[in-house]
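Notebook p. 47: complex prediction with nicotinamide-adenine-dinucleotide.
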Amino acid sequence: MTAPLKHKDTTVVEVALGDRAYDIVIGRDELASLGARMAALRPGVRTAIVTDKTVAQHWLKATEASLASAGIPASHIVVDEGEGSKSYAGLEKVSEALIAAKIERNDLVVALGGGVVGDLAGFAAAILRRGVDFVQVPTSLLAQVDSSVGGKTGINSPQGKNLLGAFHQPVLVIADTTVLDTLSPRQFRAGYAEVAKYGVLGDEAFFAWLEANHNDVFKGGAAREHAIATSCRAKAAIVARDERETGDRALLNLGHTFGHALEAATGFSDRLFHGEGVAIGMVLAAEFSASLGMIPQTTATRVERHLAKVGLPTRLQDIAGFAQEGLADADALMALMAQDKKVRRGKLTFILLEAIGRAVIARDVEPTPVRDFLKDKLKA
Ligand SMILES: NC(=O)c1ccc[n+]([C@@H]2O[C@H](COP(=O)([O-])OP(=O)(O)OC[C@H]3O[C@@H](n4cnc5c(N)ncnc54)[C@H](O)[C@@H]3O)[C@@H](O)[C@H]2O)c1
Ligand SMILES: [Zn+2]
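Predicted complex, structure tokens below:
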């Protein structure tokens, strides 16, 4: 895979879902094209922008300007930033505001923000008047390469994350790579874990390209656009094959069974961002694969080395306060993994590796070898 040398024009990736197919538009300053693209898609449309406080500060004006230039009437709803807004209260606030803004069946809701806003606004659109279409304008790296594509929307229950939701595909995704310039470096890194994931699970050449070009991806520019487009292509292909996760889509959960347990153990707090949990989880999945003899240890080390190189945590011991609060206990982690949506009759589903670029779904993994493996890791 060769590195692009200069900024390209817009890249468009299609998510091929028949009459619900849509485009992911990737490129610098693409936010300016939002209004024209929406007007072309749906003449006479009205819209409400759902966003969070931080994103509003940086990007609401530009979004409104783009819509205004295309003559699209727009109101906005601003929620608090952070996972707390993906709640019943957040859903009520957004839904009531959408009704008050008189958003009707033919209108479009615009989700302007990271994964929290995308999941929340998408779900509100899914249930508003039994379904109003929506547009994703992802503003975090994680949202651009993962959460804005594929149609999973929802909120958290006090009993668990993402337990309430709906499949509701957007009609358009605009990934403006320039908006990532205001994202914190730590948030950018966390999103990068999902970028690397696409290489590890299905594309060795992309992983090797990231090993060589990660500096430029972080700096911005053509390498960043290439990384985002490649990630979106990978996700779009999997979603088109398996929209409802009855098969292949589960591959996207590489690193997530371990990762979710770690996020739960740290209370879904700022101590461990989702992508950081995925980074550690991906290394654990690789090492677990090695312990089962599926890959040589050197392959697991290669995954770890790359993630550590960009500054991501890769070991359980990298989590702040890790030893103090039961995280250091294999049984506690096993109990947290048992709450995962992917558990069936006490057996766990893991995404394991046969090579970098070749992940496989291992259903019905017995808990004992996992527990032994974790005990081992915790001793290290
Ligand atoms: N639907 C899916 O398929 C899917 C997939 C993965 C994750 N998710 C969900 O996504 C959420 C995580 O998404 P996230 O990491 O984007 O979190 P997030 O939406 O909370 O965004 C992270 C932080 O970055 C800020 N931010 C976002 N864009 C910014 C920008 N351009 N400039 C400055 N600040 C900016 C936000 O205000 C927030 O404080 C979780 O709730 C997770 O469950 C959903
Ligand atoms: Zn993820």
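Notes: DSSP finds 13 helices and eleven strands in the chain. The CA atoms of residues 46 and 286 lie 48 Å apart.
Next step: compare against the earlier run before touching the bench.
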